[in-house]
Amino acid sequence: MAATLHLCSGYQPIELRRQQCLHFTAPLPPWQPSVSSHCLSLRLRCEGGKVDVLERSDAQSRGGSDQIPNENELTCVMKFGGSSVASAERMREVAGLILSFPDERPVVVLSAMGKATNKLLSAGEKSVTCGVSNVSDLEELAFIKDLHLRTADELGVESTIISKHLFELEQLLNGIAMMKEMTLRTKDYLVSFGECMSTRLFAAYLNKIGVKARQYDAFDIGFITTDDFTNADILEATYPAVAKRLHGDWISDPAIPIVTGFLGKGWRSCAVTTLGRGGSDLTATTIGKALGLREIQVWKDVDGVLTCDPNIYSRAAPVSYLTFDEAAELAYFGAQVLHPQSMRPAREGDIPVRVKNSYNPKAPGTLITRSRDMSEAVLTSIVLKRNVTMLDIVSTRMLGQVGFLAKVFAIFEDLGISVDVVATSEVSISLTLDPSKLWSRELIQQELDHVEGELKKIAVVNLLQHRSIISLIGNVQRSSLIIEKAFHVLRCNGVNVQMISQGASKVNISLIVNDGEAELCVRSLHAAFFESDLCGVVFESKSQNGSV
Ligand SMILES: Nc1ncnc2c1ncn2[C@@H]1O[C@H](COP(=O)(O)OP(=O)(O)O)[C@@H](O)[C@H]1O
Ligand SMILES: N[C@@H](CC(=O)OP(=O)(O)O)C(=O)O
User: Fold this and answer.
1) Which one of 310, 313, 369, 543 is least enclosed by Cβ atoms within 10 Å?
2) 3-state SS string for 243-311
3) Backbone CA torsion sign across 405, 407, 412, 416
């Protein structure tokens, strides 16, 4: 009697006959995350509709004594951000860097060159109003053309590999000018030209220097997403599809895969989507999990994740180790260095992420893993999220009102607005709204008025704009010490904290302050926690920031 094996989404059910030997060449991680095998052989006996495993062998498993190294497998992901591939010279250096790891067989993920994404967006915005006849004169279009054609020339590769894209880009801008509008869907298609061209140039260059490489557009190899243009989520079906394609091609004809970061394909619309700004990090971790690779490397222009944003405070220093939870919290609360969702696939696949500096490869960088030694850890990093809206909501019915919190959150759910930080008492709630979710929806003021209107039906509402969240990422087992020190520093600087939340997170304490005093707070906190004695630096706040 035969039996049917149902695996997971992405795999066809398998009909089993008696004593059949099964040989999977598809990767396992999506449905067996603890094993990074690429190839599993099972000898199964099928009797009376019941299936027994007689024999099992893994071609490659991660860690432990059962490891059977496979010389031919892909080993890691190497993702290079826009700053790492900003010019022909940088691309040459990145190629050299990849080749300096002869034991690695990487999947390479690239972002658009330098500031190409910003230029494309700006070209689109100008096209809405400039009129069709002026599109070809747009300075941003000239910049994009010049950057990519010059790079092709300097790398010594045929410019014909990108000429179709440059032609289509101009056509698209003409279309936007004609329609006098740019939808979110159009925006995603527009920015996709950046990654499509950088990867083509880089793959061509590797091939030119005798390193076999193959270019892939993520939307063609199984990156299936929601249809939330400009901020799409990756769907589960992506993992088996991407693994099948990359692994299959690698086995049949090995060539370094060069994949576009940031891009996907909407599952309903079949149109190009993007994963939110900085989304190439997420592309990298998704590939890492899909293929069950040994490591995911994200190469940036800083020596790893730093103790705070170096643009706010130049004495920021690299953090050697982080857990996935710390890194996720850090990214979610605004550290530009990592995409907010990028830790999820790495954590699910338990694949270490290394943040490295492509301008300074010798620097050790930051290693992000499931756990780390926290015995000495107090504060790890300080993160700032600006321009946050805060709401104070007080129940009109006062004490003992059953279901007040539920009603408040139902309003946010109905309006599709996500909440960041929350502090509650029985009759009141203070919360902050995620600015990125609001910004991407453009109707910001009308939406806020609507939220206020709905909440006023059940509560007294005070809407406070221009606030910042300062997140103290660290060992919350030492929360008393962190809070004591932080409040001492802030009091020394005359800053009044408007809300504090330790929340369910075990790694983050959030403080809400005015936007105008936030940078001062970060610098003072950094000085106190990472540099000198308590309150060692009290910045001259009052004269510089009228808000204090
Ligand atoms: N805590 C932080 N650690 C490191 N970099 C940070 C941090 N906060 C902000 N940054 C900024 O993030 C930048 C790196 O992120 P990003 O520009 O997205 O890199 P890439 O484009 O190379 O992927 C750094 O140049 C730095 O200015
Ligand atoms: N090019 C996209 C995607 C990306 O991830 O870029 P970067 O790796 O340079 O942050 C952006 O600018 O958002």
Assistant:
1) 543
2) HHHHHHHHHHCCCEEEEECCEEEECCCCCEEECCCCCHHHHHHHHHHHHCCCEEEEEECCCCCECCCCC
3) positive
First to last CA, the chain: 79
Q: 248-257, pLDDT tens digit by residue?
A: 999 999 999 9
DSSP, res 529: I
Place of tokens 């599109």: 135
Token couple for 29? 């991680």
The distance of Cα 415 from the centroid of its chain, to the nearest Å, equals 25
Give dist(CA 366, CA 381) in Å, integer.
Answer: 12
Looking at ligand 1, which atom is closest to the CA of residue 83?
22
Percent of the chain with pLDDT over 70: 81
Instruction: Measure the CA dihedral 147/342/312/119, to 10°.
Output: 20
Å from CA of 339 to ligand 1 middle: 10
According to the model, what pLDDT value does residue 453 have? Answer: 87
Q: Which amino acid is at 427?
A: V
Least confident of 11-20, 219-228, 312-321, 422-431: 11-20
Residue 200 burial (C-beta neighbours within 10 Å; 0-12, 13-18, 19+): buried
- At residue 421, the pLDDT reads 86
Nearby residues of 212 by Cβ (< 8 Å), 6 or more positions away: 206, 254, 255, 256
Ligand nearest to the CA of 261: 2
Interface predicted TM-score (ipTM) of this complex, two decimals = 0.98
Residue with CA nearest ligand 1 atom 20: 81
pLDDT of residue 63: 34
Ligand 1 neighbour 244 (Cβ under 6 A): no
- Measured distance CA(173)–CA(177) in Å, rounded: 6
Mutate to test the pocket of ligand 1, among 97, 300, 313, 330 (most ligand atoms within 8 A of CB): 300
For 429-443, the pLDDT digits (tens) are 888 887 655 444 444
Among 15, 44, 19, 41, residue whose Cα is nearest residue 28: 41
Separation of alpha carbons 290 and 78, rounded Å: 14
- CB 391, CB 428: distance < 8 Å: no
Of 241, 204, 312, 228, the closest CA to residue 276 belongs to: 228
